[in-house]
Amino acid sequence: MDASTDRARIADIAYRTALTVPGVVRLESAPGGAFTTTGPTGEPLEGVSCAAEAGGGYSVELRLVTELVPLRPLAERIIARTRAAAKAVDLGDSLGEIELVFADIQVGEPG
């Protein structure tokens, strides 16, 4: 696979994995379209930024909206699950730094 495909796959893994973690409501882009990456089939992945690292591999930033939960344990679960998911498809060595931005905390019922 070429590097751009690996980048898109890593972004997609991080996006989809984060959404499976209890406490994550959604990922969202920032104003002006920041935190939006193109996925492997050309779809926009809102709330994800994925960039090449100087030493090789790709760093990922996720911009999250969460429920009112303890954020440090939530972050640890998201990072651990994302690393495991990347490793499961032989992209573990290509996944670099994972950073999380907590854009909002949703309190109560949505809507």
Please give a structural write-up.
- The chain is an alpha+beta fold and 111 residues long.
- The protein has a single domain (3-106), classed as Cation efflux protein, cytoplasmic domain (Alpha-Beta Plaits, 2-Layer Sandwich).
- The protein contains two helices and six strands, in the order H-E-E-E-E-E-H-E.
- Strand 5 (58-67), helix 2 and strand 6 form a beta-alpha-beta unit.
What's the helical proportion of residues?
25-40%
CATH superfamily: Cation efflux protein, cytoplasmic domain
Q: What is the beta-strand fraction?
A: 25-35%
Q: Name the average pLDDT.
A: 93
CA distance, first residue to last residue: 42 Å
Question: How would you summarize this macromolecular structure in one to three sentences?
Answer:
This protein is an alpha+beta fold.
Task: Tell me the layout of helices and strands.
Layout lengths: L2 H18 L3 E4 L8 E3 L5 E3 L1 E5 L5 E10 L3 H18 L6 E12 L5
Parallel strand pairs: 5-6
Antiparallel strand pairs: 1-5, 2-3, 4-5
Helix pairs in contact: 1-2
